[in-house]
Amino acid sequence: MEVLTRPAAVVEAEAFFAAVHLADPDESDAAVVRDTLAAAAELIGSAANRPLGEHRVIFSVPARSGTWWFPCAPVLGINEVTIQRADGAWVPFANWRLLDDFSEPRLRIGATGQRADALLQVNARVGYDDGTVPPSLKQAVILLAKDWYEAGIAVEARDETALAFGVKALIRKHRYLRPREWA
Questions:
Q1: Structural domain boundaries of the chain?
Q2: In whole angstroms, what is the distance from residue 73 CA to residue 49 CA?
Q3: Which NCBIfam families has this protein been placed in (predicted)?
Q4: What is the pLDDT of residues 66-124, one digit of tens each?
């Protein structure tokens, strides 16, 4: 999956400051908190396989007929599906249909007429759009960012820290696991 665009902030710094009861933050605190919130939202979305905020992405999948399950949910829409011809050029492909876009998104792919090693590129919008991120996932972002902020952990060190139990429980509640890759 190639990420083309990322969303604006899912949780605003003001919401974080209100949650941690910090009444008068200075601008340097606000900048650190914005970066920490963005990193926490990315980690929470990745751990739950539910991107927080709308992302534009490209998936490369084998060009074969059948049903392909997306590795994340929800899928807000498909911008374009292209298929790789024998000469390597990418051309529009129209023989597809998006099924159950929110809870178990999958792409039904019709006959492709291409060689076995050809690829499809699916340019899609995934994640929650504005205002639809579940409150419990926003809370998980705040809890994780609070842990990092209070511990003085730099955003770059996020892979080296353990998640708190409450954060894990909130992620587990929303985690998307695709039932299979192809059918």
A1: 2-51+130-174, 55-126
A2: 7
A3: phage_chp_gp8, put_DNA_pack
A4: 999 999 999 999 999 999 988 889 999 999 999 998 999 999 999 988 777 889 999 99
